[in-house]
Amino acid sequence: MLTVDFQRFPLSPGDHVLDMGCGAGRHAFEVYRRGANVVAFDMDREELAEVSRMFGAMELAGEVPEGASAKTVQGDALGLPFPDDSFDKIIAAEVLEHIPDDMSAMTELLRVLKPGGRLAVTVPSWLPERICWALSEDYHTAPGGHVRIYTRAELEAKLKATGFRVDGHHHAHGLHAPYWWIKCAVGVNNDGNPVAKAYHQVLVWDIMKRPLATRLAERVLNPVIGKSVVVYFTKPHGPSETLAGDGGREKTDAAA
Question: Which residues form the Methyltransferase type domain (predicted)?
Fold first, then answer.
């Protein structure tokens, strides 16, 4: 299940791409399939071991274009172990809301991205996330859980202050917000609840089959209750490019 829209965030074969906070690797796998050279980065060694195994399986299955490469790197987002200007593209999906010092992590993303390179950031949307926090304390107090709820305006302002130019946004996973509200209401660890199980089966069916009905429903729901907001950024070549780029965007992109 991808959150980043690769039509808005196009990749070229040979691009060097960092998936920062890759988790189980869903975006890293898609980047690899598209012929880029991907680095899947995370703090969790066990998850990275599974991601590495999947990279190998994809290569054996012939899913990877010739010339693409993939590797995993373990480390801390506050001190990325890469030289300045290392990557053409960076994805940071559902990770910044876990990091207490998010501004330091953003500064590191700017440092390792090449001038002119693009960044895709996804975080939980404010309204769906606020409802989850209200329904369940366990949802946001578990170790390693979410430490803040972003508005899009706050996320954009922080990354602009870091030095990025904002390029646009969209919402995703409108069908998933009600599932998490159910989970929070019945207990986030209550996997046996029949309502939660039934809704989860619907989501799996949607992910596997992508029927027209659910695609249309999600298109309607995304702007209202999309579980994630996705914002795209560029690292400018210089300060004048930052000002010119943001001025043009702010005239056409209403705040949420």
Answer: 18-120
Is 35 a member of any domain?
no
Q: Specify the CATH number for the domain of residue 224.
A: 3.40.50.150
Do the domain assignments include residue 16? no
Three-state SS sequence of the chain:
CCCCCCCCCCCCCCCEEEEECCCCCHHHHHHHHCCCEEEEEECCHHHHHHHHHHHHHHHHCCCCCCCCEEEEEECCHHHCCCCCCCEEEEEEECCHHHCCCHHHHHHHHHHHEEEEEEEEEEEECHHHHHHHHHHCHHHHHCCCCCCCCCCHHHHHHHHHHHCCEEEEEEEECCCHHHHHHHHHHHCCCCCCCHHHHHHHHHHHHHHHHCCHHHHHHHHHHHHHHCCEEEEEEECCCCHHHHHHHHHHHHHHCCCC
Q: How confident is the model at residue 233 (pLDDT cuts 50, 70, 90)?
A: very high
Number of structural domains the chain divides into = 1
pLDDT of residue 253: 37
Whether pTM exceeds 0.85: yes
Domain of residue 234, residue span: 76-247
